[in-house]
Design brief:
11 helices
Amino acid sequence: MTLILLGILTGFISGFFGVGGGMFLVPMLLLAGFDMKSAVAISIMQMVFSSIYGSFLNLKNNKDIFKDGLTIGLGGFLGGSLSGIIISNIDAQYLKYLFIAIVLFAIYKVTFTSSVKNSDHTTIHNKYLLLILGFIIGMIAMSIGVGGSVMLTPILAGYMYYNLKDASSLGLFFVIFSSVAGFLSLSISGHMNYEDGSIVGIASLIGVYFGIKIKNTIQIKSYKYMILSLYLLILLSMLYRL
């Protein structure tokens, strides 16, 4: 029952904030008694479910994100495919520290980024830059059990001038590619937890539906503060676990 409830809540967060859900799910699984590498495996499998369904719902509302999403996603897939090698050779404690550093970066960048696109800047659609960005984020994110949106959304909004909601939708679309690559890589390396991951993943679909539905009714300025609140909550939970 605990895994089902975590799945629904993670799915809601995934759909509403455009994240894979790993930022929330990994700390909660650690608090529930799972070790770091098991938590990462469950989180990645959940992301496969929630990102595919969530992106399907997002694309129905905004088809313009599809082209850029494919470019970033390809990079994420290539980078995420290396996660099995990384997780097999790096101590779990170092992965926790990396997780915390990424959350701190996200808090800083979202705080000082406008929630809407600045009219003085043109959105950057350079496909090579998007591909490289996706590769780097996919490689890091899948190694710590997050989808990568926690890094990608602040960069897209802060440096490439997407508005915050479009950036979050692209972030979730990116998670499809990075999480599938991570799933395959961890499966090959023997780290995947299929049973618990399936329970959490299927339950997350319920939460994703309602998360996206509610996101589309929220004003973008309020949405920024909600994202910051999520990041701060996750940071505190991870610090408590340490």
